[in-house]
Amino acid sequence: MRILFTVGQRYLPQGTGGIEVNTDALAKALRCRSIEVAVITGIRPYGLRYLLNALARKAMQRAVVADRFGGYRVYRGWDTVIGLSEVLEDFRPDVVITQRDDRFALAQRARQHRVDVYCYLHSATPADACAPCPDGLPFLANSHFTAAWIGRHHGIHADVIPPLIQPSAYQVQSTRRHVLFICPRASKGVNIVLELAASRREVTFDLVDSYDPHYTPADIRARARALPNVRWHKVSPSIRHVLGTARLLLAPSQCEETWGRVVSEAQCSGIPALASRVGGLSEAVGDGGILIDDYTNVDAWKETFAQVWGDATRLERLADAALTHSRRPCFQPDAVVDSFLQAIGAATPATEALRRRPQLTR
């Protein structure tokens, strides 16, 4: 079987957001099942990778050209809708999984080539709701929240395929001394984090830059530099180095997150989250953290943080709950792959066995 994923305008290593990381993890897990995988993506106009890609496209007179990032083919180019026809001819996939930017246009193009298409939705924004959806397009969703959103806005059932988290990539023995926050953007709640850090100078806050540091506002960097208890970390392929000192993860999102991958990654090491009760973030947190209802109110964050940080016994209980939550059978990598293959109709011994498993729980 051959599966092609689309991921929008950037992919690893240029973009290290949730969709990119999840697609890479799923691609590698599928390859372990002897399934051929490829990705088609846009490319951002900077760096050596872009220069080499542009030269190759010009020399070969193609819209996209492939490299072998991650051990599988990654087709990159300036226009993935035009480039898709080239990829379908070259890779000849049995199934196309469209995600993020231009997902519906890419789905229409793949259908013209008589290829099965599924839309794997990781977002739930007004723009997503307004986008014209091709008739009869089957959906996959990264959470129950996203699946319900698809039902409301498109009137379509969606199978839930949660993010694939490889525990070994995130398991550490943390010294449990610092607060951790990843992706310092306004929509992720960076202003609340900086207010917290300013009010708790005795606590060290580790901030990890966003997946595209070019878009981190200069004023955010300046405010962080002005606080002696804030340590700024560049984005990197692994977050193990910051997990190794984390006692608590902050996820004060101010937008409707459809999951919260950083929460799931931290829970693999028993690091609980203090998070907004919004969107699908509560599914990611489960019992392994605390959810704040009044999540736009910085005073509510300060009060709850003070209660939790000063209570070692409570934090220990939350750490145990976070680890337990990360070990749910239906969220283990093999189970996620089985659910994915069953959802796209791939009949394998594992998917047949899956029919006898309990249904995915929140």
Automatic annotation (TrEMBL):
Boundaries of every Glycosyltransferase subfamily 4-like N-terminal domain copy: 17-165
Keyword Transferase recorded: yes
UniProt keywords, alphabetically: Glycosyltransferase, Transferase
InterPro entries membership: Glyco_trans_1 (IPR001296), Glyco_trans_4-like_N (IPR028098)
Key word Nucleotide-binding present: no
GO molecular function: glycosyltransferase activity
Superkingdom to which the source organism belongs: Bacteria
Domain Glycosyl transferase family residue range list: 188-322
One Pfam family named in its UniProt record: Glyco_transf_4
Any GO BP annotation: carbohydrate derivative metabolic process
PANTHER family: D-INOSITOL 3-PHOSPHATE GLYCOSYLTRANSFERASE (PTHR12526:SF510), GLYCOSYLTRANSFERASE (PTHR12526)
Protein name (record): Glycosyltransferase involved in cell wall biosynthesis
